[in-house]
Amino acid sequence: MATKKHVERHSGAVLEAEQSRLKPPPLFKVLLLNDDYTPMDFVVAVLQKFFSMNREQATRVMLQVHREGAGVCGVYPRDMATTKVEQVSNYARQHQHPLACVMEET
After folding, report:
1. Which of 41, 91, 88 is nearest to 66 (CA)?
2. CB 83 within 8 A of CB 89
3. Helix, strand, or coil here: 63?
4. Residue 72: which H helix or E strand, with range?
5. For residue 39, how many C-alpha atoms fall within 13 Å in the half-sphere facing its CB?
6. What count of Cα atoms within 13 Å lies in the side-chain half-sphere of residue 37?
7. Distance between CA 62 and CA 69 in Å, rounded?
8. How many CB atoms lie within 10 A of CB 28?
9. Residue 33: what are its φ and ψ, rounded to 5°?
10. ∠18-23-25 over CA atoms, to 5°?
11. What is the pTM of this model?
12. Do 72 and 58 form a contact (C-beta atoms < 8 A)?
C-alpha cells in the first residue's frame, strides 16, 4: 500500500515527512486438542461458554476435534488468545477433564 507524503517548504529546502502504516499485530489460532477422556458434551459446553458459539457451531468444531485431532475455536490477538487458553484450561481442570487448549500463530 502506498504511503502518504507530506511536503513542507522551510528556508528553501524541501522536507518530506513520510507516514508509514503500522503493521497489524500477529493473530493466534486457539485450538482444542482431542483426548480419549473428555466427554463430547463438555467440549460443546466449553465452545459455547468461552467462544460464544451456538450449539450447532460448537458441535461442528467438537466433531472436528474428535475426527481430526484438533479444532479451531477462534482467531485472536495474542493477549486475548492467551486469556482464552488459560480460561479453558482452568475450567477443564476444575471439572477434572484433561482437555487441552493451545494457541499458535496464524
Report:
1. 41
2. no
3. helix
4. strand 70-77
5. 5
6. 8
7. 10
8. 22
9. -110, 145
10. 155
11. 0.78
12. no
How far, in Å, CA of 80 to CA of 25, rounded?
12
User: Grid coordinates 461458554 are at which residue?
Assistant: 49
Nearest to 50 by CA among 78, 77, 76, 85: 85
Which residue, among 97, 103, 79, has the nearest Cα to 38 in the 3D structure?
Answer: 97
56 within 8 A of 20, measured Cβ to Cβ = no
Amino acid found at 34? N
pLDDT tens figures, 50-71: 999 999 999 999 999 999 999 9
| 93, three cell numbers | 481442570
| pLDDT score of 88 | 98
Residue 77 corresponds to which cell in the numbers above? 490477538
